[in-house]
Amino acid sequence: MKLFYTGPVINTEMLVMMLEKHGIMGREELVDSESDPEDLNRLAKVFVPEADYQRAYDLFYGEKEGEL
Predict the structure, then answer these.
(1) Whole-angstrom distance, CA of residue 45 vs CA of residue 3
(2) Alpha carbon distance 28, 16 (integer Å)
(3) Is residue 68 pLDDT above 50, yes or no?
(4) Rounded distance, CA 9 to CA 63, Å?
(5) How far is CA 12 from the centre of its chain?
(6) 33-54: string of b/e by CB count within 10 Å (b at 16+)?
(7) Which end of the chain has fewer CB atoms < 10 Å from its terminal CB, N or C?
(8) Strand partners, 55
(9) pLDDT digits (tens, 9 = 90+) for 16-67
(10) What is the DSSP code (8-state) at residue 35?
(11) Are residues 9 and 17 in contact, defined by beta-carbon separation less than 8 angstroms?
(12) Beta strand segments in 1-68, E
């Protein structure tokens, strides 16, 4: 597994769901397991399989045709 994204848990939860819709099994991991479980701003990391990393990168960070 390769680190793909680090950010607030509210973003990582959505990212994992979006990855799964594209057939990429992402894994979310909290940075601080002692943090308040209700805090949506606590940090988490998203990992993707190394074989799917480039495809995930292209989906979320690649240039989009037609964007200004």
Answers:
(1) 7
(2) 7
(3) no
(4) 25
(5) 5
(6) eeeeeeeeebebbbbbeeebbe
(7) C
(8) none
(9) 999 999 999 999 999 987 778 788 889 999 999 999 999 999 998 887 655 4
(10) S
(11) no
(12) 2-8, 27-30, 43-48
Q: How many angstroms separate the CA atoms of 54 and 35, rounded?
A: 31
* Structure confidence at residue 64 (pLDDT): 65
Q: Tokens at residue 65, please?
A: 């045709």
Spatial distance between the Cα atoms of 49 and 33, rounded to a whole number of angstroms: 23
Q: Which residue bears the tokens 């190394």?
A: 50
Six-digit token string for 33: 């397991």
Distance separating alpha carbons of residues 64 and 55, to the nearest angstrom: 14
Q: Which residues contact 56 (CB under 8 A, 6 or more apart)?
A: 4, 19, 22, 24, 26, 48
pLDDT of the residue at 58: 93
